Amino acid sequence: MTFMKKLFAKGAGIEWNILIEEATTLYNTGNYERGVVVAKKALEVAERNVGPDHSNTGTSLNLLAVLYKTIGEQSQAEALYKRSLAVSENTLGPNHPDVAAILNNLAMLYLDQEQFDAALPILRRVVTIMEHSLNPNDPHLATAINNLAVVYMNQKEYTKAEPLFMRALVIREKALGTNHSDVAGTLNNLGCLYSEQGRHNEAVLYLERALSIDEIVHGPDHPDVASSLHNLASHYDDMGQYTQAESRYKRSLEIFEKSLGPNHPDVATCLESMAVLFRKCGREMEADALIKRFTTIRAINR
Predict the structure, then answer these.
(1) Is the domain defined by 1-92 classed in CATH 2.40.10.10?
(2) Given this model, what pLDDT does residue 10 score?
(3) In terms of Cα–Cα distance, which of 80, 148, 140 is closest to 111?
(4) What is the SS3 assignment for 98?
């Protein structure tokens, strides 16, 4: 406790710390709009108390960026991440783990926007920093490696993606256990990778295992379970096993609707996949009904 008080005296102060903790709690509990308000206040306090180039200011900028990204304000988030990165590199040095964390956040923003060429060099740098600063079995390193593999997979660089996914999987299983949600995430990625390559037996093996873990960890009605089901359905769809695909799409849709609401973008994605499937099967009327529905949902979410 004494150490914390000394830290506050040198940093942005107790008020800043309270605001940062409150904004973080609001983020973790899904109160994003209120979190933005509190994070803005924390940034104001940091800039007033320690100036624009202090590490506490960099922390404030990063948290505000995370919140803006979550509510869909991508351009605001990008600008804040870049400001946070500049401050943190200046105060902590270019190879500090906190700098890697901000770089990873920026890369994930680009990934969400499918700007893979922008994300790639950033994630390479993240992995390099973490390899030199973290234990080789640290789960944060596994996350960075997994994210880099995702970029390569989206660029169709499968021979680069596969060993990275495998390395991330080994680290996650060792650090977190075999039934952890992050393990399921990497298994899902490997399943999708193999599906894209037409390696059907391997794809089913990894996708089924990911689904099993998600059901153990989250229960049967969690969005992660729905995502795993959707991935598995998509693979069966690609294989021409339409009955298998349809049953899993339907269960995925039910879970998304129940857990996220009927107008969530993930519901629209699932409806679109089902519409494509029905078209392949000559079920035009059913496909048209689903197309109307997912088009309406996307219009709502614009």
Answers:
(1) no
(2) 54
(3) 148
(4) helix
Torsion of CA 47, 53, 57, 61, to 10 degrees: 110
Residue of 94, 90, 84 whose CA lies nearest to 64: 84
Q: Residues, the chain, total?
A: 302
Give the helix ranges, DSSP H, for 51-138: 55-70, 74-92, 97-112, 116-133
Residue 269 belongs to what H/E stretch? Answer: helix 265-280
Q: Which two tokens stand for residue 71?
A: 């509510």
Predicted TM-score of the model (pTM): 0.83
In whole angstroms, give the CA distance from residue 141 to residue 14: 32
Annotated domain spans of the chain: 1-92
How much is the average pLDDT of 277-298?
96
* Residue 2 pLDDT greater than 90, yes or no: no
Q: Give 3-state DSSP helix, strand, coil % of the chain, rounded to 5.
A: 85, 0, 15
